[in-house]
Amino acid sequence: MIRLLLLLALTFGLASSASADDIAATGRGVVRVVTIAVVDDQVVGFGHGSGFAIAPNRIVTNAHVVDLAERYPDNVVVGIVPTEGSKSYQGKVIAYDSQRDLALIEFTGARLPPSALYTGPMTEGDPVVSLGFPGNVDLATARSAADYIRPMTPVRSEGVLSGRRVLSSVEVLLHTASIARGNSGGPLLDRCGRVIGVNSAITRGEEGDSTFGFAIADTELAGFLHDAKQPYASIGTGCTSIEDRLRQDADADAKATADA
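Request: output the structure for the sequence above.
Response:
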């Protein structure tokens, strides 16, 4: 009995930290994407969103985050601000899909850990995690414009998958993880830290209505990366935590004992 209790304590403790470690590992590849519009050497506009590494020097984000840079490349600078270190880096939009609302940015000067795309099935009610840089948090904590280009860890919020929908011919994931302006382009993850979507929009409900987030679905992201000729890591097997694996081992041991 004592051994069983110790095993259960170890199981639940490890499962919790393993899940957190998975999310934290993906978070190291999440970035803030900044756009700065300059005319006659004067800054005339500033915007920001989120993104994540799909390769060591390439970032996925929403097309609407870098729309001005795509339209006015000579006047708009794209900046990549990692979560770690002390520097930010200039980027260039190399692929842009306004229909899917996805873009690919290339930058030099650092190498980030790429995220893996989960291509297996997801069920309504499955837990999801959003990582990014919501603007409402920035407004509450930023002290100066420099704070927007200073490396910091992304904000994490949790929710559940509420279903799949089609908006303007694009497949999206509906979810309850809290997001806001500034989260656009950031990853929506499963509980093992794998990308299942790209956060893009939120609902605008009446007072008292629940707010839902929309993320560009994994199928659309995979299609975009294929069209952009960008290789990426993908995993189709389900998420198995340490807790799940130990439970499976315990069940197997119990069955073997019963059959003996």
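Helices lie at 2-27, 67-71, 135-141, 218-227, 242-259.
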